[in-house]
Amino acid sequence: MTETAPMTAPTATPASFASVHALFAATAARTPDAEFLFTESVTAAAYGIEAGPIRWSEARAEVDRLRAAYAEAGHGHGHRVGLLLENRPVFLFHWLALNSLGVSVVPINAEMRSAELVYLIGHSEIELAVSLPQRAGDLRSAAAKSGVKFQAIGPDDAPPPALSPAPRAAEPIDADTECGLLYTSGTTGRPKGCILSNGYFLRAGEWYAALDGACSIRRDAERVMTPLPLNHMNAMAFSTMVVLTAGGCLVQLDRFHPSSWLASARESRATVVHYLGVMPAMLLSAPPSPADRDHSIRWGFGAGVDKKNHAPFEERFGFPLVEAWAMTETGAAACIMANREPRQIGTSCFGRQEPYLDLRLVDEAGQDVAADQPGELLVRSAGSDPRRHFFSGYLKDEEATREAWADGWFHTGDLVRRDAGGNFFFVDRKKNVIRRSGENISAVEVESVLNQHPAVKTSAVAATPDAVRGDEVLACVVLHDSQAGKPGSEETAASIVAHALDQLAYYKAPGYVAFVDALPLTPSQKIQRGQLREMALALPGQPNCIDTRSMKKRQD
Fold this sequence. Notes:
The structure is a single chain. The chain has 556 residues and is an alpha/beta fold. The protein contains 15 helices and 25 strands. It has helices at 20-30, 41-47, 56-72, 89-100, 114-124, 136-146, 198-209, 233-246, 261-268, 278-284, 307-317, 398-404, 443-450, 490-503, 529-538; strands at 35-39, 52-55, 80-84, 104-107, 128-131, 151-153, 178-184, 192-197, 223-226, 249-252, 272-276, 299-303, 321-325, 336-337, 357-362, 375-381, 393-394, 410-418, 424-429, 433-436, 439-442, 456-466, 470-479, 512-515, 545-547. The longest helix is centred in the first third of the chain and has 17 residues, at 56-72.
């Protein structure tokens, strides 16, 4: 069963629509000749595609063509399809076409390698993936290892017949229908699959389009530029959805290029930009130029800008960097943003409590903390439904879902401080997650791969500070007794990192390998994470710690 998109809806809100596709179709009908996507020259060259605009009507025609092809092949409500298409326009076309049929998409990070793909395909049970041709073989091999029925096609190939009937074909497509399955780093194990509904995405667009203060959105006028990956919540649920909701144009870069980012903004006529904290630091490292303010950018949406860089960046480039907080699990349902003055520039402030949100800051005992004391941030939607517009749950992990929602609050795992004026400040992450250049990395996932290396007896992974990337991955490694006499060698460290690069995305591999005699353990023989974090701060520069950062390069 498919939903029918309204053809015109000048005053409709996202809540009026049954699906993301229906919202897209309505905006396309309203502004058919306007630019929907713009591919600037750097991205076009990186992808080998044509630079320039794609209009709403052109996108609608391509989505309709794909929709018909998928429907003819029997793909429908309740199926999942993987998308390994990087940040290319075809990602959006396939997503919207599949969404119209009630098919959920599983974005696949193009940096993933064997072990990650085996897990993702087996856990999500996708039977079809639309992939870059050069990666289709990797997906088929991973599917064979995971034991699932599977097909992989290129973005221009005709969809093959579905391997199974659509599980929910008789049910209507609505706001509760699964729209996407996004994987986020686990804290004690494998990445978790966050089930995200149409309502989750529609709310993100509605929230973004209604921003005020420093971040107002002009209907049909904004050109939103982002280098963030479409396999992450920010690009899928914020930059894409605000364009679907308010009209305008999406400028999706292939990735962040510090040397050409400002030129891309000029070429694309970007008015709103998305950033991660490492990006302002990189842009500030270039020599100042009179052209630094030669752009149309009104404001930037992001998180994690270094306190010392915040004010200098705004002064030099002439637009505000507006800090915000959210998670994949919360989407816009609990997004907090410092979009109103005073923004507390240079303090890690990310805004104040909003009426749509209930929140608490609690200590280890679950008691509310006093003003200016750090506590774990707990959030929920205000009103009768505390989970409204949050994620629908973790796939195949009801226990983790219940734990995350203990006592009726979503436990974020982030430590936050609130001052007497009601401003919130990010303090630290309670979770055992390393955040490198905006990518969340599960220490346990990396450890499970390192421990498979023949020289490694056991390992433990933690974050160590990096001036450019925020965190870098440091691995403490205990070698097997058979490796006596070899510990500390650069050759052994390089072999361990090469092994990780074969199995994991490049950014997850260790940037430092420290050879130690033993790991810090609790009485129950679990890794003492607090002590490990302290070690990770002191190890770089020591004779037993090998710097392997030069091995961590993006793989094409």
